[in-house]
Amino acid sequence: MSKSTAPEISWARKEDEDWADTVQVRLALDEEVPVGFAEEVLAEARQLVEEAGQPAREVFGDPAAYARSVAAERVSETYRAGIDTRGLRPAERLAAALGSMGFLVFAVFGLVWIQDGLWVGVNWASFATITAIGVGVSAGCVAFVARAAGLFRGMWWFLAGAAAAFAGAVTLANALSDERLFRVPAPVLMLAGVPLAVAAFLLPEERINRWFTPARPAGGLDDEQWLARLDGLLRGRHGMKATEARAHVEEVRQHLAAATEAPEATKAEHAFGDVEIYALRLSEGPRRQQRVTRQKFYGALTSAALFGVLTVDSLLDPHDRSSGWVACYVGAFGCAAWGAVSEWRTLRKQRAALTDLADPAAPKP
User: What are φ and ψ of residue 181, in 5° steps?
Assistant: First the structure.
């Protein structure tokens, strides 16, 4: 989520503008770069193009290849080690979750307005249920942020809190009175999502990032702490399968066990360096993009299953069959299903490319 307000860079030629737009899009979508990096790179590129007096494509070549090369050369390992498979830091993930929740609240109560009219009745049961669901969704979002930061223990705690909140919502909905207390205009409830969206841009990013970074002991990490952190980073931040991550951890463990001459020099932190940078190096390579695509595929598949269940449940209920919710569920299911199919196709192409790279004569998957 970029908060950059850099002025737009002007180009003398239309073809140079198109080249610059492609570079900016590639840096935003395919490369893991800091906020403002694209503007800085394009400002330097424009100056060089003006000095050369030639089109940008002739000076720098293909825009996608240029974006890839400049990101590889100028973005430090320290920065790349702190971001996940989506190119986000914990604070940026949390901000994205808050923004999405704000939009969802706005859209849901907008649909309630269209479906049920201007005035919405509020009772204790609905108030408690909505509050519990909000707490549960928030805890679930934090759980996924913790997972992307490699903090699996924190993830399970927040998921347990989310499950408890949802269970409480069901209990309260059945236990509390459904007698109406007062009525509220639907637009007022829609505006409840605005503070969430605003908060997404006001989060103290550095402080949030520190919350999701384990404190380093004064004497440094011992070997077991270092290995546990490596496993969490590979599985969470870099999207490796558990078996692959544990194989890397076991390899490091065996190396440490075999080095007996200089115990201090062969301590994990001394032998392999900063655990976040080491995890990044292990995760890089041609399989990294495949792991990213696999995560997107699983996410789209889960969303399709969820909206499919909601669609079937609504169609089986005579009261909900003709409501606007059914159309929303069907539309969301269609988008998620199409996304899953698209990611699956991309995943197959990436696997075929990796097969060709490893063994050009091997059969395609």
Answer: -90, -45
| Token reading at 224 | 């077991």
CA 171 to chain CA centroid, Å, is 32
Query: Tokens 């649909």 appear where?
Result: 111
Around Cβ 57, how many Cβ atoms within 10 Å?
A: 16
pTM: 0.79
Q: What is the pLDDT of residues 9-55, one digit of tens each?
A: 566 678 888 888 888 888 877 677 887 888 888 888 888 888 888 88
User: Which residue type sits at 225?
Assistant: Q
Q: If you ran DSSP here, which 8-state letter would residue 181 be given?
A: E
Structure tokens that stand for 288 in this block: 């990294």
Q: Could you tell me how far CA 97 lies from the centroid of its own chain?
A: 9
Alpha carbon distances (Å) from 72 to 17, 66, 79, 351, 360: 23, 10, 12, 23, 27
Tell me the pLDDT tens digit for each residue of 122-142: 888 888 888 888 899 999 999
Report the 10 Å Cβ neighbour count for 232.
24
Chain CA centroid to CA 70, Å = 24
In the chain, beta strands by DSSP E: 119-123, 180-185
